[in-house]
Amino acid sequence: MKLKLLAILGGALLMGLLALPAKADVASRGVPGALNYIEGQAAIGAESLSPQSVGSALLQPNQVLTTTPGGKAEILLTPGAFLRVGGDSAVEMISPNLTNTQVEVQRGEAQVEEVEVDQIFKQNDLQILEDGERVVLQKRGVYDFNADQRVVRVLDGQAWLQNGDAGIKIKGGHEVALNDPTLKSRKFDKDSFEASDDLYRWSSLRSAYLAQANVDEARTYVVNGWYGPGWWGAGWYWNPWFGAYTFIPADGFLFSPFGWGFYSPLWVYRAPGFYYGHFYHNFAAGYPAWGYAYGPHYGPWNRGIGPGFHGGPPVARWNGGGFHGGGEFHGGGGEHAGGRR
């Protein structure tokens, strides 16, 4: 009877593993332009995309990715940089080269979350084009490009808008209206934007998922306290459990602009040691029903039922419609209240 039960359980486990998304072709797909997530309907040229396209579809030079009003997509840029495309939008890949990555936002809204630009990859030149203007991303941060409104916003970080032989520095909390002949950088209501912009909230949730995937994946490259097989340094790593690439830094750990930690293999044992409190994600309709929580102690996360993580008394909560609650993140990036910088 025991043998029969074990055989059944083993078969179920094998079927579950086979149902996981297959590992993508790292050599050719973990590069700028690789599709990392899709929600709703999107297409590259005339080719419709589906969840099965993640990890295999690639936005090539001169190709355009489009989304329907209810669609969203996430594209890899340089290591540590994610391009997230909102509904009813179009972006064109101009150049996918690691040392010269250029994307043009032709219609709608797109955002870039840059996790790593301050430290290792200074040789990368990441540029976003909008309305004929060229914007160079200079620091870790979140950047919003709205082609319909003809506005470039820097939520966090710093950008340089190239204007002929001169240029305009855009700091965090500032925007430039491209239809203004003066092209001046002005402050905007950042809190109101973050609370009301659907793509920003979605980008924050995606950042949280990828931070989870980072911790899960980074642990697989530790053997006897040192780097194990498959480790090649900082870059994109495919996590089959999350069905996406996540970013793993070469050394130490860093915080995303949204406050989530990304750990290297030899530092992942600290996760989530730099977080205090319990954060449970309760998603609105349309978002995956994955939740997790951090316990207030060092050591590995306690896996609960399903793919989430659980532990500690609740003090904060996110909803699909916004952020709620208190709680703090403490670490190298400073303090973060309510899960938002």
Helices and strands in order, then pairings?
Blueprint: H1 2-19, H2 26-29, E1 35-39, E2 42-44, E3 47-49, E4 64-67, E5 72-76, E6 81-85, E7 90-97, E8 100-107, E9 109-114, E10 126-130, E11 133-137, E12 141-146, E13 151-156, E14 158-163, E15 166-171, E16 174-177, E17 185-187, H3 190-196, H4 198-218, E18 222-223, E19 226-227, E20 235-239, E21 244-248, E22 253-255, E23 261-263, E24 275-276, E25 279-282, E26 316-319, E27 322-325, E28 328-331, E29 334-337
Parallel strand pairs: 8-10, 25-26
Antiparallel strand pairs: 1-5, 2-3, 2-4, 4-7, 5-6, 6-9, 7-8, 9-12, 10-11, 11-14, 12-13, 13-16, 14-15, 16-17, 18-19, 20-21, 22-23, 24-28, 26-27, 28-29
Task: Please tag this protein with its features.
single chain, 341 residues, mainly beta, Jelly Rolls, nine-stranded mixed beta sheet, eight-stranded antiparallel beta sheet, 4 helices, 38% strand
Describe what this molecule looks like in 3D:
- The protein is mainly beta and 341 residues long.
- The protein folds into 2 domains: 25-191, Jelly Rolls; 198-337, no CATH class.
- It has 4 helices and 29 strands.
- The strands form 7 sheets. Strands 3-2-4-7-8-10-11-14-15 form a 9-stranded mixed beta sheet, with no helix packed on it. It has an 8-stranded antiparallel beta sheet with strand order 1-5-6-9-12-13-16-17, covered by helices on one side.
- A hairpin with a 2-residue loop joins strand 26 (316-319) and strand 27 (322-325).
- Mean pLDDT is 76; it is low at 2-24 and 273-341.
